[in-house]
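so im writing up the methods section and need the NADP-dependent oxidoreductase domain-containing protein record in one place, dumping it here so i stop losing it
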Amino acid sequence: MQQMAISAFTANPSSSYGNTLSGLCSRWPEIWRRRQVSSGIREQAQSQLQYRKLGDSDLVISEVTLGTMTFGQQNTEKEAHDILSYSFDQGVNILDTAEIYPVPTSKETQGSTDLYIGRWMQSKPREKIILATKVAGYSERSPYLRDNGKVVRVDAANIKESVEKSLSRLSTDYIDLLQIHWPDRYVPLFGEYSYNPTKWRPSIPFEDQLRAFQELIDEGKVRYIGVSNETSYGVMEFINAAKVHGLPKIVSIQNSYSLLVRCDFEVDLVEVCHPNNCNVGLLAYSPLAGGVLTGKYLDANPDISKKSRLNLFPGYMQRYNASLAKVATDEYVKLAKKHGLTPVQLALGFVRDRPFTASTIIGATTIDQLKENIDAFTSAPRPLAPEVLDGIESLFKRYKDPTIL
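--- predicted struct ---
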């Protein structure tokens, strides 16, 4: 799949032709044939996903990452397998899961997502799949993740136990990308936008976390490491600890990024992640803001949103459904229609084209949703037109991160 997509962008340059009319006429059939072939190549290139190298790793990943957090909660195993197979057939080569999935989390369902993925992977070539998962950060509410039933931390014992259990559930002997789901130290998370100094607590040193990952890499159980829901301070501390102590460097950061959530990343993480600085690739999650940017929640009684997560789980990700976020979403939907785009094409095209985006994580509970999401990457003009981007920036000036409550 990857080779097909890359080769689609290569074509033999047209040869020079004679300057006489007779020469042109005699070679016209060849010119026409070449133009037809060239046109076909361009169409093929536009209809296929692109691939990028992830940070300083050797992982070449599709611009779409399949998010799986609904498997085992909103999706049955058969539905999950259908979603996985369709994504794989379309060229998506990276899957993202986590030990706590599915979401919303519970002791009863924890690990179901991994089990579904593991059974699906048994019929697929393992080397063609880039498997990303996450070890939970500090948690007092999820002691069931560990055998000792205590507070979950990001120390050597917790990391090792997490990985061993993930490998077993996923029916594999290695993880391509292991990420820290959220930091061991206190940071504002999941809708919090202000650092509270009184919540500071002692945390596992960055060096100790990296040494634990080094052991797993040495054992061949993990290939690369990354972070999630991290700040510029955390990224730099991990980078510095790796450099000073000769430990593995993080290659990715998985943070929320969308038309409704931009400031946190754009203010300083873009600089940190720049290839000329730390070269940490963004795996953007919630690019549709929990589905809000599709516009499906704008109607008070839409059939399409009755089974969507914000209605199924009251209070979940409520920041995306707040009044100002709805106003901004309505404006983005209007902007998309003005330029002949769907709301999904606008939202995903925007994240796709950001120079710091390595891959965009999409989730879907139906094949129709999945198809629309994947198609948006190839059907939306690449890049989005200047007038579309101007419209986005105009709205951004009016509605800077409207999910901040």
